[in-house]
Design brief:
The protein is α+β, with helices and mostly antiparallel strands. The protein has one domain (41-164). The protein has five helices and seven strands; from the N terminus they run αααβββαββββα. Strands 1, 2, 3, 4, 5, 6 and 7 form a seven-stranded antiparallel β-sheet that branches. A hairpin with an 8-residue loop joins strand 2 and strand 3. It binds heme C.
Length: 168
């Protein structure tokens, strides 16, 4: 019995001397740092919705487009309405060469029966587009640095934006 107790104390003593608890802390800190470095795209998309679209007043339609405009063969849906926020509108009016940070474009997508499909969003952040797809009720479908969106959109002449490029 006594011998067993002695060993337990010995193990605990070695642990304290060699810094077992310290080691545990390091691992925890490392995990937390790693988590911070990966941006939480879903949370960013939720915040974007809450800050910008939750009221659904929406902004103005992009100049030269119409509400529920027909766009055959569009991957997003047969009919669509494309809106921009104030920063986008200013940049269009002032003929900026690229969209500045904070610019947001949003396309409401409908199928041929005019049923709601998805809401696709692009927002300029740190000179890059952040992409997001929502249901009409605001739930996030996917968001982030989405390669699929980028690869198609980069064919658009003006800053990956089809609506502002003169494409046939
Ligand atoms: C295969 C090509 C393709 C892919 C993939 C694609 N798009 Fe588009 N997108 C288009 C086209 C074409 C338009 C123009 C639609 C119109 O004229 O109504 C467009 C329009 C938009 C618009 C309105 C601004 C603009 O460029 O005209 C937004 C916002 C948008 N897409 C977001 C997205 C997001 C987010 C994704 C990825 C989840 C995505 N798109 C994937 C082709 C694509």
């Amino acid at each position: 019995m006594r011998l067993k107790l002695f060993f337990m104390v010995l193990v605990a003593g070695i642990c304290v001397l060699t810094g077992c608890p310290a080691q545990e802390n390091t691992t925890k800190e490392e995990t937390e740092t790693a988590a911070k470095e990966t941006p939480d795209f879903e949370q960013m998309a939720i915040d974007l919705w809450n800050e910008e679209f939750s009221h659904f007043g929406y902004w103005e339609l992009i100049p030269g487009t119409a509400k529920h405009q027909e766009s055959k063969g569009n991957p997003h849906g047969h009919y669509g309405s494309i809106y921009g926020n104030d920063i986008t509108m200013d940049a269009i009016n002032q003929q900026f060469e690229v969209m500045p940070d904070g610019a947001i474009l949003l396309r409401e997508n409908f199928n041929e029966e005019m049923e709601q499909l998805k809401i696709t969003v692009m927002r300029k952040t740190e000179e890059k587009w952040f992409w997001a797809v929502y249901d009409f009720d605001g739930s996030v479908q996917t968001a982030g640095d989405l390669r699929k969106c980028q690869e198609c959109h980069r064919q658009a002449e003006y800053d990956s934006l089809f609506v502002l490029s003169n494409m046939e």
